[in-house]
Amino acid sequence: MLSPIPFHDQQASPQRVGPLFAPGALIPFILVTSLFFLWGVPNNLNDILIRQFMKSFAITRLQAGLVQSAFYMGYFLLALPSALYMRKVGYKLGFVTGLALFGVGTFLFWPAAIVGRYSFFLFALFVMASGLAFLETASNTFIALSGPVETSERRLNFSQAFNPLGSITGAFVGTAFILSGVELSANAVRRLQASHQYVAYLHFETLRVVQPYIVLGIVSLVFAFLIWRTPFPAMRDEVSEGRAGSTPISALLRNRHLLLTILAQFFYVGAQVGTWSYFIQYIQDYTGQSEKVAGYFLTGTLAMFGIGRFASAGLMKFVRPATLMGSYCLVNIALVSVAVFHPGWMGVWVLFTTSFFMSLMYPTIFALGLQGLGSESKVGGSFIVMAIIGGAVLTPLMGIISDSSKSIAYAYGVPLLSYICIACYSFFGQRSALSGERSHCEQKCPAVARSEGF
């Protein structure tokens, strides 16, 4: 077995530039980074599905928002079991299991389309997300721990930068192959109903979602085989697990820094998912553009997200990650305020720009939350992944606000509030909480504190 990956004092200044990853971790690092691209595709196919299912099943915005609820509920329910599973079998089997489960979910889209039941699609999305819970829990933690502590935020932002490339691919594929561009007026619907052709039209629209998901399933099985055949190094949390007993989950949940991180991640995921889920509808409502044009705008804002990830990874050589994240939050608070109170083309462009500034938040919050967790990084990371439930809670909330107020612009008040909460975490919460955890650990055992990265 390879020696554990080394780590250093996490209190190093942001100007200190260490290696991005440790020797012996290059091939696994490349494979795992590729997974960030892979799951970016279905994450943003969901935004297309919401629009498509509103049409093919003739449902409301709130009902269509259940796409995100089913998807992120899979993350919420499977994140902790996946961490406990990987604590016994290791990262490698965690990746393989997650990819297999994800593949099963994608293949379920075929019978769901044949049956034509919206609930069947929601189940398939839940199964897919259950597999992704394994991948997210394993990948984020693996990347964060696969090198020196002082470069963990940079390393995770770099790997996560490939996630929006997958998102761009998903939005483009969905716009090109799922959205048909056929938008029927009320009179056209009545004519099809009168000629008994409306059901056939809905079935045609439903079948359009199958092919992209079948391709995704095949790709996931290929990745599972490649990872199975690749030797993986021992991570430092796996070595420390062998030296000490597991910390009770109840004790881990008393870690104030971890709790604040979970809350910040909850609001961030809700803001991201909600912003993109209703972006197509926002464009159509306030500019009158077609769903195809709006879909390409969604692709463009995801490109901004990817540019932001790479730019942030570079800026973190010079600016502390938490400070950079807080500054980006302040910018997004101003931008989303314009979208809420001045809807129209100006609102479209400011929402388009918010993706650049939200880009660093997920990996930065995740890496900050793992600080000091040591051998419990997998379980702690799973709790942070469970915070993805924010997408399942806040996205339908935006649908409720939109349906009740008859304004999708007012619904964007939810992401606005979320950025305010994340800004508070960036500037105040994570610093004071981490300081308290460090003092407690040093008082309990200075030697252990040093070994855990304090």
N-to-C SSE series?
HHHHHHHHHHHHHHHHHHHHHHHH
CATH fold-type name: Growth Hormone, Chain: A
Helix content: over 70%
Distance between the amino and carboxyl termini: 27 Å
CATH-scheme architecture: Up-down Bundle
Individual helix count: 24
Give the CATH superfamily: MFS general substrate transporter like domains
Helix/sheet category: mainly alpha
- Quote the average pLDDT: 82
What is the CATH class?
A: Mainly Alpha
Main sheet specs: none
- How many strands? 0
Radius of gyration: 22 Å
Low-confidence segments, given as residue ranges, are: 1-16, 241-245, 439-454
Work out the strand percent: under 5%
Give the total of domains. Answer: 1
Based on Cα principal axes, name the global outline: globular
